Amino acid sequence: MITRTHERASFWNQGMRAAPIVIGLAITAMTTQALVAQQNATHQLPLSAENIHWGFYDASLEPVVTIRSGDSVYFENLLARGLQRLRLAGISEDRFLPSMLNVEEEETVRVGSHPLNGPVYIENAEAGDVLEVRLVDIGFLADYGVSGFLPGGGTLPMDFPSAALRAFEIDTINGTITMTGVEGIEIPARPFFGSIGVAPPLLRGRINSTAPGYHVGNLDNKDLIEGTTLFMPIHVDGALLSIGDGHAAQGDGEVTGTAIEASLYGTIEVILHKDRTLQWPRAETPTHYISMGLDPDLDEAARMATREMVRFLVEDKDMEPGDAYILCSVALNLHITQLVDGTKGVHGMLSKDLFR
Where is pLDDT greater, at 61 or 356? Predict the structure, then answer.
């Protein structure tokens, strides 16, 4: 298990500090504790077929749990594409958890690659609101993973017209990963969930989980690790949040089409913002603000990521648009999030140290 502690991130913390609450003497300490406990429940979504929908986002899905703003959700997730690639890569059957086998056998409706936990219904959430998802805790459900490539996929399909798989062993104590059959390589474990999204508008129907979009979804952003926060626009009542696609580690670009796919557990805290609007997802780490661009054209994705950071600097940092644009040129670092899902991803990272 990898445990890290970070300051709680909040993309909207500028000027939004709540005034101290004066509690009347008539309210006892016991009553106050009961109210806090009621407002900050932790819900459990263990790995089982009833808590998973496989490979799609859909506003017509029935939620598996209903929560309030401020609640947390603990969940366990099965790696992308399930157990087949692990078997082909040589992972022994006796290493699979019974819950993993249960989902593999019982979840027969599969649209895309990703088993997703949820959807989670957030009370009072409405279209136009903003959903904040704090990634409180991320760890390994199993100490192995798999990566590889398929014919016609990835960034270099003409160079690699065949298929290959490689198993990875994860040292969950030391936080390192080794590639089986390859000597002398040790990869730092950096687990994160590749797909975090909300339901699209009802009339849009069912969306394959492969590519990200306005519903957010399969960002494959390796910077969204434990201790970071993602902000998303909401399109339907309740938001219907889903999460999955665990990765043990990934490079920017995810050039073969797969990271080290792994089964993870996680805890998220969900906050509803009714006084904010967003067009595209944003994120925040303890050290950086992150803007994102998503488009089939990589140039347009870069423009979107830049435009979103300019918008943030104008709206949240009170900068003039021209000054914000100049600051982005001298301090914003654009990263290729991923290249391989049809929709290209670019994210811009701006250091918080710039703001004194």
Answer: 61
Answer for the pair 336, 252: CB distance below 8 angstroms, yes or no.
Answer: yes
Cβ–Cβ contacts within 10 Å for residue 122, how many? 25
Mean pLDDT across 247-261: 97
Flag whether 13 is in a domain: no
CA atoms within 13 A on the CB side of 179: 14
* 356 — pLDDT class (breaks 50, 70, 90): confident
What is the DSSP secondary structure assignment for residue 353, as one 8-state letter?
G
Question: Which domain covers residue 315, as residue numbers?
Answer: 287-356
Query: Mean of the pLDDT values across residues 291-296?
Result: 97
Sign of CA dihedral 301, 307, 308, 313: positive
Q: Which residues pair with 232 in a beta bridge?
A: 131
Domain annotation covers residue 19: no
CATH of the domain at 79: 2.60.120.580
Are the CB atoms for 149 and 160 separated by under 8 Å? yes
Contact 330, 350 (CB under 8 A): no
The sign of the torsion formed by the CA atoms of 58, 61, 65, 70 equals positive
Nearest to 46 by CA among 259, 192, 235, 263: 263
| DSSP structure string for 227-268 | T-EEEEE--STT--EEEEEEES---TB-TTS---EEEEEEEE
pTM beyond 0.90: no
Taking Cα atoms as reference points, which of 231, 236, 272, 243 lies closest to residue 59?
236
Which helix (H) or strand (E) segment holds residue 145: the answer is strand 130-149
Half-sphere exposure of 68 (CA within 13 A, CB side): 8
Give the chain's domain count: 2
